[in-house]
Specification:
By secondary structure, this protein is α+β, with helices and mostly antiparallel strands. 36% of the residues lie in helices and 11% in strands. The protein is rod-shaped, with a radius of gyration of 44 Å.
Length: 423
């Protein structure tokens, strides 16, 4: 049990008529002392220092005090060590620098001594009655420590005022910092930021830190450049003429010299919409998830020559071929190489090379047996290209269902297919 000792003023105030002509009054609440009937007390004016004056106002609990020339605080409210006694008999008592009133009616004109240090020990005083100490009354509260005791109200008021000042200062600093740090990038820097996002798959927060802009600015730059390049690059014709394809035909296609394009469909996972109707539209039975589907075509030598738009995952591969605009590029003298499940023989105006399967027959012909492995081996190039592109970081997460994001993804898909195909 820590013994809390206090300093109390036990001297009774004597009311004696003062000899002076000026009457001073103490402005502390519940203090009736004045200099008219008391010559033992001194009356101190408020300090000129603004911070110290605020501490005085908080300590005496008068927030709206209007300080005038004769506003005083009597010496009863100061600790004895804060007062300088006069050297001469007729001298005046003065306060030490930084003194703050601390003794009031509400704290019984007393102050607790500071608690002992960690390594200090305090012996428990022997109880006067051993039996009473062993069984204390139920309504008696024994205070074993003071580190959780309520602070003095004056201290709380001072801390709250400091917190308000710091909060206001911090808000001002943040507003000024945000106004000074906001900067715009030059178009060439915006384009380079966009290329970093596309080539490296960097996160927007990382790009914001590197370029010294806000994360929302990075998002706006990416969206703006995506829409711009979608308009510019989307209008460029990447379909290669038939004569150029034949001039660079690889030797592996000697048995299929009229092949113009190798086709394959790919699916990208997207977020599931909340509407059951929309869920049924984008749900893919092949992936068992909501997806967006597109058609990709490459030339025999590996260049990407066709990238369709993105469609709901429930659409068939044959329907995508009809709606993608590929049929307008094909001519009777051409040939397309497809995978086994793309049944487009009845809608394309040209020859179709596909790995053979039975179609209800008991066996395949000798030519079909010999041609199936070769077509499968040549058609796997487009699947390999799609796999390499999907390994990029931009395709790690699900696609958000939004028109701008889908257009952005379509542009990214076109750029990546072109980049990966050439390299």
């Amino acid at each position: 049990l820590l013994a809390v000792t206090t300093m109390k003023r036990t001297q009774k105030i004597k009311y004696l008529r003062a000899t002076g002509t000026t009457t001073e009054f103490c402005c502390v609440p519940l203090c009736p002392v004045s200099s008219r009937c008391n010559k033992f007390l001194s009356f101190f004016s408020f300090p000129a220092d603004e911070d110290l004056r605020k501490q005085w106002i908080v300590a005496i609990r008068r927030a709206n005090l209007e300080i005038k020339g004769h506003t005083r605080v009597c010496s009863r409210h100061f600790k004895p060590e804060d007062i300088k006694e006069p050297e001469k008999e007729m001298g005046r008592r003065r306060l030490k620098k930084g003194s703050v009133p601390a003794l009031f009616e509400w704290n019984n004109f007393s102050l607790p001594l500071p608690p002992p240090g960690v390594w200090e020990t305090s012996k428990r005083p022997p109880p006067e009655d051993i039996e009473e100490a062993a069984n204390p009354p139920a309504n008696v509260y024994i205070k074993e420590h003071d580190y959780a005791s309520a602070p003095d109200p004056a201290v709380v008021d001072l801390v709250l005022e400091e917190n308000d000042a710091l909060r206001e200062e911090r808000g001002t600093a943040i507003n000024s910092a945000s106004s000074t740090q906001t900067q715009t990038l030059q178009p060439i820097d915006e384009f380079f930021l966009f290329l970093n996002y596309m080539a490296l798959g960097s996160k927007q927060q990382d790009l914001a830190d590197r370029y010294g802009v806000h994360e929302s600015t990075v998002s706006w730059i990416i969206t703006a450049w995506t829409n711009f390049l979608f308009t510019v690059l989307g209008s460029i014709r990447i379909w290669i003429p038939e004569d150029q394809i034949h001039s660079s035909l690889p030797a592996d296609f000697k048995d299929y010299p009229d092949t113009t394009v190798i086709l394959d469909c790919t699916e990208l996972r997207c977020q599931c919409p909340s509407s059951p109707v929309l869920q049924s539209e984008v749900f893919s039975s092949y992936k068992s998830h909501c997806t967006l589907k597109g058609l990709i075509g490459i030339a025999p030598h590996g260049a990407v020559t066709f990238v369709s738009g993105l469609y709901a995952g429930s659409i068939s591969d044959k329907q995508i071929t009809c709606e993608s605009g590929l049929l307008t590029l094909l001519k009777p003298g051409m040939a397309v190489m497809v995978y086994r499940g793309l049944l487009i023989d009845d809608i394309v105006p040209c020859k179709v090379y596909r790995p053979t399967f039975f179609f209800g027959r008991s066996q395949m012909s000798a030519g079909e047996v010999r041609g199936t492995p070769a077509i499968t081996r040549l058609g796997v190039h487009v699947e390999s290209l799609i796999r390499r592109v999907k390994e990029h970081k931009l395709f790690d997460s699900e696609i958000s269902l939004g028109s701008d994001l889908i257009n952005s993804l379509l542009l990214k898909t076109r750029i990546f297919f072109f980049y990966k195909g050439v390299n």
